[in-house]
C-alpha cells in the first residue's frame, strides 16, 4: 500500500468568492453550499494515491481548477480501468473556444467512463457542474461514489 503524502497547498479562506450578499450569486452558488472540505481532503488523498497528482491549492476553488480541464479525471480513470480511457492532451491553442471544446470533451469522456464503471446515472455530474463550477457538490458526490466502488472492487472497505 502506497503512503499518501499530504499536498502542500494553502487553504484559501476568502469568503468573498461565495457570493454572499448578492441574491443572484446566492442562487447561482446554492448547490455549492453542500460542498464538503472533509470529502475534498479524502478525495485528494485517494486521487493522489492513484495518480500522484494533487492540486496547487486546497479549497473549492483549488479543487475546481485541478479538475476543470479533465486531465486529472482521465489519469484517475486510466488507473481504475487501465487503457480504457482516451483523453485529449492539454490544448495549447490560443483560441479559448477550441481549448474549452477539448476540456469539455475530456469531462464528457470521464462521465461516460464513470457510468460504465458503475456510478448510477442519477449520481453523475453534468459537464457545466464542473466546467462552469455550477455544482461542485455533485462533482464531489460522483467522485465519492467512484471511490466507494473502487474500494469495493479492490477489497479496501
From TrEMBL:
Domain of life per record: Eukaryota
Annotated segments matching region Disordered: 1-27
Pfam families tied to this protein: CH
The Calponin-homology (CH) domain, residue ranges: 37-150
Signal peptide limits: none
The name this protein goes by in its record: Calponin-homology (CH) domain-containing protein
Species of provenance: Clavelina lepadiformis (Light-bulb sea squirt)
Lineage of producing organism: Eukaryota, Metazoa, Chordata, Tunicata, Ascidiacea
